[in-house]
Specification:
Length: 352
Amino acid sequence: MSYTVSSLKRFLKIALLVVAAGVAWFFVRYGNWFDDSAQPLEPGVVAVLRRQAHPLSTVEPGKGGLEELRFLRPLLAGKRLVAAGEATHGTHEFFAMKHRLFEFLVSEMGYTVLAAPAPYDAGLAAGRYVADGAGQPEDALRQIGDWAWSTEEALALLRWMRDYNQQPGRPKLKFYGFDGYVPGGSRAGREERMAADVKWILDREGPESKAFLWTDNTHLARVPDRMGDYLNRLFGGQEYSIGFEFDEGSFRSRGPAGLKMYTVEPAPPGYYAYTLARTGSLAFFVDLASMRGDEMLDRWLMRPQWLRQYDDSYWFSQHFRKMNSAKAPLAELYDGLIYSEHSWPVAPLGAR
């Protein structure tokens, strides 16, 4: 009996040491210690940003006019793939602006494919509805199995694609799922598979096909072992990536108790959004490559600062900035950036 009790005590001590080491590692890894990114804003950076930015009168699809987005033509010429991220899965402005951007790409630049973050099989019902009106779009979106696509914003997009396909003489739009998630696989393996799935879609559609890729900022970032890095290797100069950022507001996210609305305050110093908010524009687009060459902007773009990247773990990660934000040089992550001052939450299906 004494041997058993002694063994149990040793086991408990080892277990406590392991737990303590794990907790210590977590706080060192994700605690906000020694953050030196909140450096003084150089005079003149905001003024140069204002000159470089393309203001957007609205993010809402069907409004603002396609001519407002025609500055994108030279930037996207020769691109087979335009990929757009999002800083949260539950922000209305991001869904609406990506819808508006897709309308422009279809109407003005001949894009015909929308690749959405869903398993291929789960996206088939949405593809059939877009192609020939089969089934109900609400049911098709629910089959995707992602709460962010069971929204009124996604429904508006799907209906627009169906309406477009009903007009005679137009090339037909297609909806694909590209996220072949495999349980138990590595993160890098999943990211590489997603990039390969996107290439497979374009290969299947033919050498003249062009696609709009709907994803999030984390997957899209051009950092090692992320989809954005693999896409850059596969497509090179034929791909253009757009990150999304916002300053303040509310968004939906999922946690243990289901969907909830969360609100964040304006970005503090040390965030790229802190500077972007000082331009005074409610929404705008910037081409990051065009901004290079100005000495002040180069320093600002290449100084690692925080970008919001809120996912379904925000219920927990809100207390640890390193878990819900990325600190990196903006110029290395994306080709362009769309900024919205405010975030409003998406509307679940049936909420309107």
